[in-house]
Specification:
N-(1-d-carboxylethyl)-l-norvaline Dehydrogenase, domain 2; single chain; alpha/beta; 49% helix; 8-stranded mixed beta sheet; 336 residues
Length: 336
């Protein structure tokens, strides 16, 4: 595929760590970028000082425009949704109907509480978007490393090959490689449920367990994600890819993982509320754990690790007791 393409007009909703990083990445590729951010104080800082409030290494190009007016984001070639997953419905409602020719790229990872919908489903339903113009961009891609141009590979998922190849061409660079995948269900589930498993990995680290435990957790975690995905219509092979085992590994092991960090603090005895109160950035796995728990019950899919995370977070089950309960379940064959 030819990577050469004319510069595009791209709007970005949300300038958190990942949204801000994507704004700068796309600006460096020569695209016309405008960014909206909910917090006006942070927006003003980014506009005036051209730096990010939480990532000191992220400096913005002078060409990037910042706005507090959502209507300025419309009538563009591409609209990037980079708000936390629990804010996607609200922001799409405020935007209103999007131009049917605009490609919408979703960066939010999560499953909505109550409706149990994936992010692309919400964008299509609320935004009135053409499904063939909606893409989710997921994979092992911590902003802190992309900012430093660390070689990174992610996956763009959607139902239209033409749209996927378009996004590949305008987002890819010599350090940021994008693969395409038509299984948007599997890609979104892999990138969302892995945050729940990462909380479990953090809990194990916080308790003081070692490499054996984390290796087992990652391996059995991808089994749970795959089980859920197949019931919902995803392809098994997707979970051996970047948004499956790839994203799971980095989120369970990385020093930058907010979900793992929450788990570590819980494993050391802190309560969820006090952890969340002191955090500046969103950890998607907390809310997603509720959705995954409800989905597993609704669809009768066995997900013991995710259930244990839910119980530790919301039923105040002792973390060590939760691990013991996992280890003493009925013995089974590995590939049952």
């Amino acid at each position: 595929m030819n990577r050469q393409i004319k510069p595009c007009r791209i709007s970005i909703i949300g300038a958190g760590s990942w949204g801000g990083t994507m704004a700068q990445h796309l600006a460096e590729l020569g695209h016309d970028i405008i960014v909206w951010h909910r917090n006006e104080d942070e927006l003003n800082l980014m506009e005036k000082e051209k730096r990010h409030p939480f990532l000191p290494q992220l400096r913005f190009s002078r060409t990037i425009m910042f706005t507090s007016t959502l209507s300025e984001l419309l009538q563009r070639d591409v609209l990037v949704v980079a708000v936390p997953s629990h804010g996607v419905r609200d922001i799409m409602s405020q935007l209103g109907n999007i131009n049917r020719d605009t490609v919408v790229v979703n960066l939010a990872k999560g499953i909505e509480n109550d409706t149990l919908m994936r992010m692309s489903e919400i964008i299509i339903e609320v935004g009135g978007c053409d499904p063939s113009k909606v893409v989710s961009l997921y994979g092992p891609s911590h902003a802190e490393e992309v900012i430093n141009k660390t070689p990174t590979a992610v996956v763009a998922a959607g139902v239209s090959n033409e749209t996927l190849e378009y996004i590949q061409s305008i987002f890819s660079s010599e350090y940021f490689r994008i693969y395409a995948n038509e299984d948007i269900i599997g890609v979104e589930l892999g990138g969302s449920v892995k945050n729940v498993i990462a909380i479990a990995a953090g809990v194990c680290n916080g308790i003081g367990y070692g490499d054996n435990t984390i290796a087992a957790l990652i391996t059995r975690g991808i089994v749970e994600i795959t089980r859920l995905g197949e019931v919902l219509g995803a392809k098994r092979e997707t979970f051996s890819g970047l948004s499956g085992i790839g994203d799971l590994i980095v989120t369970c092991l990385s020093q930058y993982s907010r979900n793992r960090s929450i788990g570590e603090k819980i494993g050391k005895g802190m309560k969820l509320k006090e952890i969340l109160d002191e955090m500046h950035m969103v950890a998607e796995g907390v809310k997603t754990s509720k959705s995954v728990y409800e989905l597993s019950k609704k669809l009768e899919v066995e997900m013991p690790i995710c259930t244990a995370v839910y119980d530790v977070l919301f039923n105040e089950v002792d973390p060590e007791h939760a691990v013991k309960r996992l280890m003493t379940r009925e013995l089974i064959y590995e590939h049952d």
